[in-house]
Amino acid sequence: MVSDIKSTRNAVVTGTAGIALAVARRLVSDGFFVILCGNDPEQNAAARSSLGDQHAQVVELDVSDADAVERFAADLGHRLDGLDALVNCAAIQPYGTIETTTPADWQKVVGINLTGYYLMSHFLYPLLKSRGNASVVNFASVQGHLNQNNVLGYATTKGAIHAFTRAMAVDCAKDGVRVNSVSPGSIRTPLLEFAARSLTPEGGNLEDTIKEFGKSHSIGRVGTTEEVAALVSYLVGPESGFCIGGDFPIDGGLRAKLNV
After folding, report:
1. I want to staple 116 with a disulfide (CB 3.0 to 4.6 A). Which of 57, 63, 95, 145 is the partner?
2. Single pTM value for the model
3. Known catalytic residues?
4. CB atoms within 10 A of CB 176
5. d(CA 44, CA 58)
């Protein structure tokens, strides 16, 4: 559960590693009190150590569990008079095709990557609405537009997040709640490093594999979590007040480059 909070600007971020942790750090530096939610005890502990407890809290939460999210939102409602930002970032990326993705795999990736965004947005909406000028940022992906092989479940959820964001934005604008999505390309995260390790030949160099990933991008490198966090900072801030229902690519020109 969340402990007592005394802050004028509050944000909830789902996920406790990689991009989510960088977003939390950036929002803390912007003056937010950040509640970071994750279901991996090791990642939660590392995030707690990284952020400290003065301007952030890390809460154990499975965003795909409707009852747990409802309890979390109710508890938060007793401690806050409003929520300024919700950043839905938690995600998993299992590998599989239509043949190899099992029903259990499908339910898990949809539960975390899509249903989790709905549950957090649904149960926290009263707190967002009460602010009158809150912002929601949903993490999609370039793979919501164009796809690699063998990522059926992940790509499906990321494409759905684009439609989810547009629909939510249209409905919520009347309440002063702005909703946008972010679509990163290859970003240096634990998830990307895991993928790179699986593709690095025995005796090969992980960094060389990551450099190869970068060559697909017009800029010639992978992105950093801090670069993504800077975009989120803009989208939850007052300067982006006319941004509603958009998808903001941060992909180093990946989709602009024709790799032939």
Report:
1. 63
2. 0.95
3. 154
4. 15
5. 6
